[in-house]
Amino acid sequence: MTARVGVVTFPGSLDDGDATRAVRLAGAEPVRLWHADPQLHGVDAVVLPGGFSYGDYLRCGAIARFAAVMETIVDAARAGLPVLGICNGFQILCEAHLLPGALTRNQHLHFRNRDQVLRIESAGTAWTNAFQPGQEVLIPVKNGEGCYVADAATLDQLEAEGRVVARYVGNPNGSQRDIAAITNSAGNVVGIMPHPEHAVEELTGPSLDGLGFFTSALKHLVETAA
Amino acid sequence: MPRVVVDVMLKPEILDPQGQAVANALPRLGVEDVASVRIGRRIEIDFTGEPDLNQTREIADKLLANPVIEDFTIRLAEDGETVDAQP
Questions:
Q1: How far apart, in whole angstroms, are the C-alpha atoms of residue A160 and residue A154?
Q2: What domains are defined for chain B?
Q3: What is the mean pLDDT of each run of 10 residues along chain A (226 residues)?
């Protein structure tokens, strides 16, 4: 049976189309989810795409957190549903308290848009099991508010529990401890600032490295179903 | 109109690059004696009836501020406090 992966569209989402394409190229059936519809329509996993939900008003992700679909996703994520938040999706996951910390204005105030090397630190999550720990991947980064911050105790806890999923090799935005991606304690919820969905085809991306995040989820679903 | 004012500021330990950029521009105005600038957000909430400070606190905690990076204060607007700040 083909896995069904939901991609949420909020008002102001940008990368829902690319995320949908990445899901399809990874071998799953993409299902479009709508912010105002609380139903998840039987999906096996969810991607919160990049963009500027609700115009980034107040704080990035602050209003999206209260969308009807998010209330359902928060409950489902706590029950184990694999959820990947990319860029604005990562910001939404932090605002929804599914992930600790926050994403703030880039330290140098510049929008950063470039192909970025990341080092995968944890291959134990639902979204990174296709990688090897220490493996370097190349995927685009594009953000103005991507600087990950948390208090020292939270950062220490993330490190101690192996919940730093990926680090920048060459920090583009001032993120503390070069953090590019983190996970929750169960490993089913991952937030990542760079964009794996933009690195899934030779024609349009700098590599095919992004595909591994999506195939990881499919592998995770097969393993947890068995 | 019964009004409550919420001020949201980044916590002191959180870097405020926006404030730094403003501070760095001040010498171009001839201002040399400013040690730092920090930028926050002022939110005015008008209630239809009696202003509810407890409800405002909940609004601020859940939506207006992100307690991970920001602190907030709430207060009743003073009598005669106008919408537009006058120079």
A1: 10
A2: 3-76 (3.30.1280.10)
A3: 94 98 98 98 98 95 96 98 98 98 93 97 97 98 96 97 98 97 98 98 96 98 88
- Tally of CB atoms within 10 A around A3: 21
Rounded to two decimals, the pTM is 0.93
- What backbone torsions phi and psi does residue A149 show, to the nearest 5 degrees? -130, 145
pLDDT of residue B80: 60
Task: Give how far the C-alpha of residue A39 lies from the chain's centroid of Cα atoms, to the nearest Å.
Answer: 21
pLDDT at B81 over 80: no
pLDDT score at B58:
96
- Residue A67 makes CB contacts below 8 A (sequence gap 6+) with A10, A35, A36, A53
Burial class (CB in 10 A: 0-12, 13-18, 19+), A14: middle
Please check whether residue B85 touches A, CB under 8 A. no
- CB B14 to CB A149 under 8 A? yes
Q: Which domains does chain A have, with CATH numbers?
A: 4-225 (3.40.50.880)
Query: Of A130, A205, A201, A141, whose CA–CA distance to A165 is shortest?
Result: A130
Distance (Å, rounded) from C-alpha B8 to C-alpha B5? 10
Nearest to B66 among A59, A105, A174 (CB): A59
Question: Nearest Cβ partner of B66 from A62, A63, A105?
Answer: A62
Does pLDDT of B87 surpass 70?
A: no
